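Subject: Re: docking follow-up (calcium ion)

Dear J.,

Thanks for your patience while I sorted out the input files. As discussed at Tuesday's group meeting, I've set up the holo structure prediction with calcium ion included as the bound ligand rather than trying to dock it afterwards. The sequence and the ligand SMILES I used are pasted below, so you can double-check that they match what you have on your end before we go further.
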Amino acid sequence: MRCKGHTILVLIVTFLSSVSVFSQERIEGGVFLGMSYYNGDLNPSKQFYNAKPAVGALIRVVLNERLAFKGTLTALEIGGSYPQSGLQYPSASARSSSYSFKRSLADFSTQLEINFFEYDHPFRRKETRFTPFISGGLAYTVYRRYESNDSGGSENPHFILSLPFGAGVKWKATDWLHVGLEWNFRKTFVDDLDFMGPGDINPTDPYGFQQPSDWHNNDWYSFAGVSLTMDIFHRNVPCNAGY
Ligand SMILES: [Ca+2]
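The structure tokens for the complex came back this morning:
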């Protein structure tokens, strides 16, 4: 029993010390504006092909000069006409040599953002106004999935998990305004983001390989753009912090 009590005490002390290490220094909130696009069987590798608008909101809980938790909510669209010019799909019939789709997505993510340089250091704010960063975590995607049924087919909202990661740069423009440029990727675990219903071309296998591979065949979507965030909460710091 004594050993158990000791273990619990160690756990509590460890938890409290990690809470104090991770207590936030600042909270930022703001908006994102950019372009989104799709990669999948119809467009295996071309970046920003058929790009569409993307808008979002983000909140950043800054833990210290190197780390922040970021929550994002983004509304975006992917779609357009495929294939790229000069490319024919073997699975296409004589009537149709291209495939068009349009898909609206809602994306929620929670990510850890890691700064390459110290950013907005409380005691050296003037010298720490710029940094590149990378981010990664977990995301949810919501879209209306097409499902065939007895009455022909239906579309209902569907939640899927996706893996978010990204990179960018941040610049502290004024005492309270941060400007970011970032490029975000989402690896999903579904292959039907580009599937709007039965048609001449099968978007899950337009080349007729008939060899599904989870890694290569699942759909990705990405978005890149500008973020503007402002400080909405600042933890009090000692008066020698430059205020
Ligand atoms: Ca697909």
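A couple of observations from a first look. The chain has one domain: 2-234. The radius of gyration is 23 Å.

Let me know if you'd like me to rerun anything.

Best regards,
T.
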